[in-house]
Amino acid sequence: MKPSVREFTNDQELINAVNELSSQGFDKDNLYVMAHDSDREDRLADQSDANEVGLKELGLGSAVKNLFSSEGDQLRTKLEELGFSEMEAEQYERKLDDGKVLLIVCDDDGKSSGYMSNDSMDSQEPYM
């Protein structure tokens, strides 16, 4: 199943969303934070107790390739390794370029389909 994504411009809203997902029974092992700024990503992952895409998700080959890639290429590779198409990865990487932060839910039991959408969800509508 393709991961679900929610975009944020406000760091505290992302942290609140991770906490809400966790309280609804989502395993934090399936929640990933991604930002263009690695310091921001580290800080948000620590504060929300969510994950960053790392060696476990990338595999050794992609991780080594990323050592010699630009930041944008690294982000697109991470997104593709999580299950997004090349075109989707490019679109999300552009959103990261614009300062957005992504909360990605990788959930193979289908729970996330009613909670989050693969579309932009910057609005403050209540969760399902």
TrEMBL record:
Top-level taxonomy: Bacteria, Bacillati, Bacillota, Bacilli, Bacillales
InterPro entries, per the entry: GSP17M-like_dom
General stress protein 17M-like domain mapped to chain residues: 4-99
Source organism of this protein record: Pueribacillus theae
Protein name, as recorded: General stress protein
Bias kind Polar residues: ranges: 114-128
Region feature Disordered, mapped onto this chain: 109-128
